[in-house]
Amino acid sequence: xxxxxxxxxxxxxxxxxxxxxxxxxxxxxxxxxxxxxxxxxxxxxxxxxxxxxxxxxxxxxxxxxxxxxxxxxxxxxxxxxxxxxxxxxxxxxxxxxxxxxxxxxxxxxxxxxxxxxxxxxxxxxxxxxxxxxxxxxxxxxxxxxxxxxxxxxxxxxxxxxxxxxxxxxxxxxxxxxxxxxxxxxxxxxxxxxxxxxxxxxxxxxxxxxxxxxxxxxxxxxxxxxxxxxxxxxxxxxxxxxxxxxxxxxxxxxxxxxxxxxxxxxxxxxxxxxxxxxxxxxxxxxxxxxx
Length: 290
Hints:
Blueprint lengths: L6 H9 L30 H21 L3 H21 L9 H12 L3 H31 L7 E4 L4 E4 H20 L3 H25 L1 H5 L12 H15 L5 H33 L7
Antiparallel strand pairs: 1-2
Helix pairs in contact: 1-2, 1-5, 2-3, 3-4, 4-5, 6-7, 7-9, 9-10
């Protein structure tokens, strides 16, 4: 028998709405009242738990309707209504984004087993979810899910100074450029020394990864240390040094290995981490994490 209700839609439209952004879309900092729901590091934030509660109960409502189990559907709808209203009260600055009247009418029509009106009010409720996600998802991710680099300190292994993250990255970048500059000047001894400096700083960068990726690091995951700052990057540098030691530096190999590091370590890491960091810097002091 063909289902009367597109059950999956209830989940998809809530979690993955077809979001489009205008050209003048602004990413603004989330309200301070949201901070307390993200205050405990290492635990699923209370706000996320509430969103999951809303999504689960909302989806369960349509499963009951699809099965013509109105009693079950009403129970889920009432659970959804309570969770939806609670979320509206958790962040006062966002309350206007919740259509509590549509939620009440949605539940009332399920209680009366009026399928078509229930679907219409469902669409109104889903629209509020999509609009809120469109407006605030990115800012919430940037503020609460991406730790600020402003709080990170790194020990430079060359002079054993503790540096701000940005200064360390500047030094790391400069030491990488020095390798190529000195190579092109045919100063191979100096280029060798530049490789040594960069290698030490690249290994030092692993401690930065571990500050955020604690679980992955402790479980010996390959997602962090074996990719952006993995042994293959260090091995590429060692292969360059071998050609230096032979007395006939291999220009083709040199460029290939340097390109590998630039593309697979530097660029890939920047593509993932820099957008959030740039937004945080644009926010300034308001981007500080709770």
